[in-house]
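Weekly modeling sync, notes
Attendees: S.R. (lead), two postdocs, one rotation student

Agenda item 3: backlog of single-chain predictions. S.R. asked that every request posted to the team notebook include the full sequence so nobody has to chase files. The rotation student volunteered to paste the first one in as an example of the format we agreed on. Action items at the bottom.

Example entry:
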Amino acid sequence: MRTGSSLGTRLAEAVEFRQGSSLLVPRRWGRRAPAMMENVLKLLEQPLHRPQASGAATRRQWTQGARWLTGLSLTTLLACDRHPPAAKERQPPVVQIQKTALPTPSATTSLPAIAPTPAPATVGPRFVHPQAGEVAQQLKQLRLRLGPKESLLVYVGAPWCEPCKRFHAAAEQGILQGEFPDLVLVDFDWDADKDRLIAAGYDTHLVPLFVMPDDQGHGTDRRISGSVKGDGALANLVPRLHALLSGQPVQ
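Predicted structure, as returned to the notebook:
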């Protein structure tokens, strides 16, 4: 019975499928592997009985082919075990983000009212300290730089004057800013500036002194001088200053 043809065909297909794998061919065969495989395929086309008198070469080829066939079977089984099917790659879980619809403003939606920023409080009166030199000339230049609503007065005080100290403290603390928001006072010291004040027409026997200068910077008769001591100093000075600035008769 000739079964070599079908078996040889199957093994030839197996060899073709596994050809090139280092598991199918023993290393000691080296360069003879192609020739050995060809001989085995030729033998497999013959009936599967061991030759008796076909010569030593044929028996040697049959023996080598049988060994190779045994090794082929074993290595094929090992190869199947060494190459298990690849595990399916585990995919990370998909996180679904739920979208939240933002409310659409309607025409009737009322926006919060924005409170207006309050205007800064007006500080007054404002003190200006003159430079050394002629008084009238400095006052003339200062009048040219005044704002349209500002009023200019010459103020003369002294370190020893109690009403002067009270007036200064009230102005620095903002007590008088509601009374005289647009008043500019050119601040002189009677002890230090006496001579140049007299030369410009600002002579006095009492302090504090408040004088309205003319367009050339000289002193006029529009003035008030002196005050009471103690807590009543401001109550005495404030109405008299209002009268001086408004052009009313003053005491």
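Discussion: group reviewed the output briefly. The mean pLDDT is 75.
Action items: rotation student to repeat for the remaining queue; S.R. to check formatting next week.
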